[in-house]
Amino acid sequence: MIDTEHPDIPDWTHVYSGKVRDIYVPASVGTLEGADRILMVASDRISAYDHVLASEIPDKGVVLTGLTLWWFDQLADVIGNHVTSTEVPAEVAGRGMVCRPLDMFPIECVARGYLTGSGLADYRRTGAVCGVRLPAGLGESDKLEPAIFTPATKAQIGDHDENIGFDRAAEIVGAAEAEELRDVTLRIYTRAEEIARERGIILADTKFEFGRGPGGTILLADEVLTPDSSRFWDAAAYAPGRVQVSFDKQFVRDWLTSEASGWDKDSGDAPPELPAEIIEKTRARYVEAFERITGETFPL
User: Fold this and answer.
1) Domain CATH code at residue 88
2) Range of 84's domain?
3) Which residue ranges does the record assign to the SAICAR synthetase/ADE2 N-terminal domain (predicted)?
4) N or C: which end of the chain has fewer CB within 10 A?
5) Which domain CATH number covers 242?
6) In whole angstroms, what is the distance from residue 209 CA to residue 216 CA?
7) 19 and 56: one domain?
């Protein structure tokens, strides 16, 4: 849990803050244990290189929540989700969801349809990604056919998620559960990739979180197919063999690692505040992702 500001909401008690989300339970309960519903709120916080930055990106939480709810609707025939209501207090309108608590699986379920990032680094080192052997000769941003399942452990705030193989995932959650999570992850990715491509967006990779609900049913939870959890590329500009421009916090990462920031990401020091130009460019990128994927005009 991080120490951060969060809105006070009548009849709800704040119990947890992550890098981006704040969790509340009914004030009459006061703790997660025994709560029959939770209020999940997406803030405008942004993280990079395992730090939550002092600067925020206006409307980011609204984009994340709006996209998540839109994707939940698109995927309803593939898998259910944890949202029970979008009627939320005025203090968090547009960025809150009322959800049922789930028994969450302690792994991130990652689907990769293209080779980039940590997957490419793993491939160059081992010829495989998380133990999944791939053909020789692949390079940056090459398409993977079929897409692959590459789970990861859930890291504490300030630590890196650790990519793991399927066998390790099975040790953590059980063999049958790992197979079920792999299959549903790839089904969701396949559907979402088709939907995004129809809108001129390539879904390169994404991560999901799942939990068991009433009766043991596996449900999709947390955020889904947002610029924070996914790598979206412009299909018209896609060219294998080079790093692609992403609809995410790329402007933030690039500035933090530039000489202009004066920050050494390996120093252990907190990152500096972001310039107004970087904040605005990042906001615009998130809003563009929302509008291109949903086909809706972002509320101003």
Assistant:
1) 3.30.200.20
2) 12-99
3) 15-267
4) C
5) 3.30.470.20
6) 15
7) yes
Helix, coil or strand: residue 269: coil
Using DSSP, state whether 174 is helix, strand or coil. Answer: coil
Residue 3: inside a domain = no
The average pLDDT across 99-109 equals 96
Predicted TM-score (pTM) of this structure: 0.94
Reported as a pLDDT band with limits 50, 70 and 90, residue 299 is confident
Residue 286 contacts residue 61 (beta carbons within 8 Å): no
Per residue in 183-212, pLDDT (tens digit) is 999 999 999 999 999 999 999 999 999 999
Q: What is the 3-state secondary structure (H, E, C) of 176-204?
A: HHHHHHHHHHHHHHHHHHHHHHHCCEEEE
Clarify whether residues 39 and 115 are in a common domain. no
Which of 150-154, 186-190, 217-221 has the lowest average pLDDT?
A: 150-154
* Single residue among 58, 84, 99 that ends a domain in this structure: 99
| E strand intervals along the chain | 12-17, 21-26, 38-42, 45-48, 51-56, 83-85, 96-99, 103-104, 107-114, 128-129, 132-133, 143-149, 152-153, 201-212, 218-221, 230-234
